[in-house]
Each structure stands twice: as structure tokens, then as C-alpha cells.
Automatic annotation (TrEMBL):
NCBIfam families: cysS. ATP binds at residue 281. GO terms for molecular function: cysteine-tRNA ligase activity. This is Cysteine--tRNA ligase. Keywords: Aminoacyl-tRNA synthetase, ATP-binding, Cytoplasm, Ligase, Metal-binding, Nucleotide-binding, Protein biosynthesis, Zinc. It comes from Rhodobium gokarnense. The gene is cysS.
Length: 459
């Protein structure tokens, strides 16, 4: 039997995208609660939007471990290390694909380690599961749900009666959302690639259909099957993956294995904006985790993310980071160097058990901070914050690490802002991005508005 707090587990509720309802969580096997989350495609440094699912599902992983016992939760988060973006970036940099993916995966791990994100139970790589992918494609062809054409193998979407059940989109919406490729070898416009041929110089593996490589959607179906089984409990990821990626994962997995479901609960975190705008390199507001960590402790980034409920859109702002840093300063001041209590506060656990209501949990932590003044309750505050990956340092270590303030040369900052404005006017967006990123690395955040560009100093 699980050695966690299984009585509390009965009260866990999660919003299921599949049903569009908040449901009581009931695992297939309480002795082995299984969760899969889509991980990074390792071609470039992860941006702050990529940090959101890593943090959100880390909180869920921690909660499940608390409720069911650490030895009774299996968390799989993959690494996609075969992809056209990887091929293009390696060629652009003049390095091998292996060199690029190893370097990018290493930086990703360093970055999310700094955010107090626990390593998953299993972290499979796509290139290590080619045999499982080929086996799935063969079975889909055998079952009448896929066909070979012009060196490709495609999933036959009309062969699945309830395709689209997760996203609940019309055919027109699905075609637009999938950015359907027009190809003469397709039977139906919505059919998607399971296997495609590889040209010379591209990664490829021998298969019954010739040398080739997998389609993007197939990877997660194969890796979840390998490590979690044909059916498992929770599948998570960003809302941007709901369609077509997760929809196609479901189609492949169910039609291959003949199951009614792939995962029983589908969880999706909301979009992230930066200073009220969609993040993009052309707008100069593309922020990587790696760069933010040069100026902010990882706990600040983590708490700032959790102040918004995971299903809601979040606006990532410099003001919000400053407020969050002050909150952490106050909490660390309250706990001192106290050890955590044996159990977290029941109110915090209850908030997290209500569809990961982190804003409500944080409100409870504020209450614990007030009670912790004078030494009382410090241990409870620390244990409760630890449950969501916060207050993992001592107050003295925190103070020593966050005391330094960046030096500021206002005239030099204004000169660089003008140089950036000139670069943007000349459509030299790469130079404009470089200037903004260099300033960010020095602790200076820029904010573009109708009346020009303003700046402020980060802690």
C-alpha cells in the first residue's frame, strides 16, 4: 500500500481538459500513480514560457508524492532530440546534431534545477525509442489506421470516429490549427505524418518504409507507452500543445493499442505574455530562463510563476518579479534558519488539492508568515513552502546571495536604448535583441510603450 497521506489523496481534484470539468482524481493504481509531461525540444535555450509547465507539473509531482508516497509516483518528462529545428540550428552553428542536443539539454537541466524543479522519475530521449515508434507505426498500418505513401507513413484521421474529442474543434478549426500541409500523397487533408524519409545528412533510421525519422507526435506516444503503459493517469503540457500534438498522441496511442483512453486526466497550463505582449524575438521581449537567472534567484522566478493559477494566462513583468522578491525576503526573514516541520499546513495542502490552486496556497503561506513572527510557526511555514518548492535555503544563505545590487550607469543605458531604437528602425532586429539581452544580463529591464522605452533596475 502507498505510504503517503492517502486519506488526503481522496480529496484531490483536477480540471480535466478531456471532460472540461474539475474531477476527483482516482488513479488506475494508487501504488503506481503515473504522469507524462511533454518536455523540451533541445535546439535552443528554453524561454520563460517553457518554464511554466516545468514548474506547474513539478508542483503536481511534489503533491502526488506527498499524497501517495514518493515511491508510488512515476513521472515521465521526455526530451525531443530529433526534430527539423534541431537539424537547422546545428547546420546554422556548424556543429553536429549530437553536440547541439547534448549542450542544450545540459543547459536546460541547469536552468530548471535552479528553479527547484525536481528531476522526473524517467527522462527518455526520442532517439532512444525508435524501435518502439516503428512498432507502433506497423501496428497502426495493420489495424487500418495508417498507410504508406511516397516514402511516408500517415495516420488516417477519418478512420478514427471520435478524432478531435480533446480539443472539440470543428474540421475547419482543426485544419487551421494544424497548419495542414498540402501533399499529393495524402488521402485526407487532416492526415498527419507518422514516419518520413530522411535525406542525406539528416538523421535517419532503417525501417520497413525506408531510411527515415519519426513525426513529432509519434515520439510521445512511444515513450509514454514504453514507460507508463498503454493507459496511464495524467498527461500534461502547455495549452498550445492541446491541438494538434496531444490530439494526435491520443489518436496514435488509442488506435494502436485498441484502448478507450490514452490518459484519464489531461492538464494544460495557460499562455504566458511578457509585459502585456506575446513573447517574440521580433518584439525584443524574448526572455530565456538562462538570462533571467543571471539577475534573479530561481525561487523568485518560481514563486512569480505560481502567483497565477496554472490554467490562467500569465503576464510576466519586471514589476511582478520585484514584488515577488520582496515576498520571499519577508518569508525568509520570518523562518530564519528554522528546520521544516514534519508536516505542511493543512490549509496549504487543501488549496493545492483543489486543482493546484497555488494563489490560495500562497495566501495561506502569507498567513503562516504572520504567525511565524517571533519564532512561532516558522517550521510550519518552511515545510508548507517546501511542498511547492520554495524556502529551500536558510535565511542567512538567502540574504548573502541576494544582497548585491547591480551597478547602474544611466547615461550608458540611455545610449544603448537609442542604439536599439535605431536598430529597430532599420529592421536590424537581431542587433536590437542583442542590446536588450545584454542589458537584461546586467540587471536592466526595458519596457516599450506608446511614449517610448523606459527602464528599471532588477534586484
Amino acid at each position: 500500500m502507498p505510504d503517503g497521506h492517502n486519506t488526503g489523496a481522496r480529496s484531490l481534484k483536477l480540471y480535466n481538459t478531456l471532460s472540461r470539468e474539475k474531477e476527483a482524481f482516482s488513479p488506475i493504481d494508487p501504488a503506481n500513480v503515473r504522469m507524462y509531461v511533454c518536455g523540451p525540444t533541445v535546439y535552443d535555450f528554453a524561454h520563460i514560457g517553457n518554464a511554466r509547465p516545468a514548474i506547474v507539473f513539478d508542483v503536481l509531482f511534489r503533491l502526488l508524492r506527498y499524497l501517495y508516497g514518493a515511491d508510488h509516483v512515476t513521472y515521465v518528462r521526455n526530451i525531443t532530440d530529433v526534430d527539423d529545428k534541431i537539424n537547422a540550428r546545428a547546420a546554422e552553428r556548424g556543429i553536429s546534431i549530437r553536440e547541439l542536443t547534448e549542450e542544450t539539454a545540459r543547459v536546460y537541466h541547469e536552468d530548471i534545477d535552479a528553479l527547484n524543479v525536481l528531476r522526473p522519475t524517467v527522462e527518455p530521449r526520442a532517439t532512444e525509442h525508435i524501435a518502439e515508434m516503428i512498432a507502433m507505426v506497423e501496428k497502426l498500418v495493420e489495424n487500418g489506421h495508417a498507410y504508406a505513401a511516397d516514402g511516408h507513413v500517415l495516420f488516417d484521421v477519418p478512420s478514427m470516429d471520435d478524432y478531435g474529442r480533446l480539443s472539440r474543434r470543428s474540421l475547419d478549426e482543426m485544419q487551421a490549427g494544424a497548419r495542414v500541409e498540402v501533399a499529393p500523397y495524402k488521402k485526407d487533408a487532416m492526415d498527419f505524418v507518422l514516419w518520413k524519409p530522411s535525406a542525406d545528412g539528416e538523421p535517419g533510421w532503417d525501417s520497413p518504409w525506408g531510411r527515415g525519422r519519426p513525426g513529432w507526435h509519434l515520439e510521445c506516444s512511444a515513450m509514454s507507452w514504453k514507460h507508463l503503459g498503454k493507459e496511464f493517469d495524467i498527461h500534461g503540457g502547455g495549452i498550445d500543445l492541446q491541438f494538434p500534438h496531444h490530439e494526435n498522441e491520443i489518436a496514435q496511442s488509442r488506435c494502436c493499442h485498441g484502448t478507450d483512453v490514452m490518459a484519464n486526466y489531461w492538464l494544460h497550463n495557460g499562455f504566458l505574455q511578457v509585459e502585456g505582449e506575446k513573447m517574440s524575438k521580433s518584439l525584443g521581449n524574448f526572455i530565456t530562463i538562462h538570462d533571467l537567472l543571471k539577475d534573479w534567484p530561481g525561487e523568485v522566478l518560481r514563486l512569480n510563476m505560481l502567483r497565477t493559477h496554472y490554467r490562467q494566462p500569465i503576464d510576466w513583468t519586471a514589476k511582478g518579479l520585484t514584488e515577488t522578491a520582496k515576498i520571499l525576503d519577508g518569508w525568509y526573514d520570518a523562518i530564519g534558519d528554522a528546520a521544516p516541520a514534519a508536516e505542511p499546513d493543512a490549509e496549504v495542502v487543501a488549496a493545492l488539492s483543489d486543482d493546484l490552486n497555488t494563489p490560495k496556497a500562497i495566501a495561506a503561506l502569507h498567513g503562516l508568515r504572520a504567525a511565524a513572527k517571533g519564532g512561532e510557526g516558522a517550521a510550519s511555514l518552511k515545510a508548507s513552502a517546501n511542498l511547492i518548492g520554495l524556502l529551500e535555503e536558510t535565511a542567512s544563505d538567502w540574504t548573502a546571495r541576494t544582497a548585491a545590487e547591480p551597478e547602474v550607469d544611466a547615461s550608458e543605458i540611455e545610449r544603448l536604448i537609442e542604439a536599439r531604437r535605431t536598430a529597430r528602425a532599420g529592421k536590424d532586429f537581431a542587433e536590437a535583441d542583442r542590446i536588450r539581452d545584454d542589458l537584461a544580463a546586467s540587471g536592466i529591464v526595458l519596457k516599450d510603450g506608446p511614449e517610448g522605452t523606459t527602464w528599471e533596475v532588477r534586484r
